[in-house]
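Example 9 (inverse folding). The structure is encoded as follows.
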């Protein structure tokens, strides 16, 4: 291999590495940038549920491929205290199982299959919140955790663990001033608007 070829390989490798780094940085920092006033953020309710089971990882991935900015998902807690992504309190409608989520352990729920919008079983499984957070980490997407307010401390710990605090939105009816007294001083809490009579509170980890 001559000197000219080696130089070209080094140059190409450097440019490729720079491109990958820029793409990764732009994905991670998308929501840290000031959003233009004329931009409308698009939210997908329970993800792309027309093509995949609602609240599944595939539904979130499908919404991202469609260019959605925010995906709304729902949380329920299992008998053994694990947070899973599911709307209903019962397993019947969206899975091949039956009964209350709160009366089943995660080990009992994991073998179940999610159903699609027509009620037919698919190959998709019920994801935990931690699995979903790990999936979206660093990607150009935010999650609106509906029903997450009831499990706020557990949600906080999971977002800290997965490094996804800056990608999470929670809604609730408590004043921001009340929560500031309870949560870590590194968290910024803002009541940004009223929506159907409920305050919407955004949690953003303070940049150091």
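The amino acid assigned to each position is listed next.
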């Amino acid at each position: 291999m001559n000197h000219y070829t080696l130089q070209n390989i080094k140059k190409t490798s450097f440019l490729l590495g720079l491109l990958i780094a820029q793409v990764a940085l732009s994905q991670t920092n998308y929501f840290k940038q000031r959003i233009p006033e004329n931009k409308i953020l698009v939210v997908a309710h329970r993800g792309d549920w027309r093509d995949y089971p609602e609240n599944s990882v595939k539904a979130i991935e499908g919404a991202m491929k469609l260019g959605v900015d925010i995906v709304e998902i729902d949380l329920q807690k299992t008998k053994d205290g694990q947070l899973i992504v599911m709307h209903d309190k019962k397993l019947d409608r969206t899975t091949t199982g039956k009964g209350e989520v709160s009366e089943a352990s995660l080990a009992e729920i994991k073998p179940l299959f999610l159903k699609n919008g027509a009620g037919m079983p698919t190959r998709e499984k019920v994801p935990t919140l931690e699995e979903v957070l790990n999936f979206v980490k660093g990607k150009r997407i935010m999650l609106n955790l509906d029903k997450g307010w009831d499990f706020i401390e557990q949600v906080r710990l999971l977002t800290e663990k997965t490094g996804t605090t800056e990608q999470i939105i929670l809604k609730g009816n408590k004043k921001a001033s009340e929560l500031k007294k309870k949560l870590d001083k590194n968290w910024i809490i803002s009541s940004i608007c009223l929506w159907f009579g409920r305050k919407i509170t955004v949690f953003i980890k303070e940049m150091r």
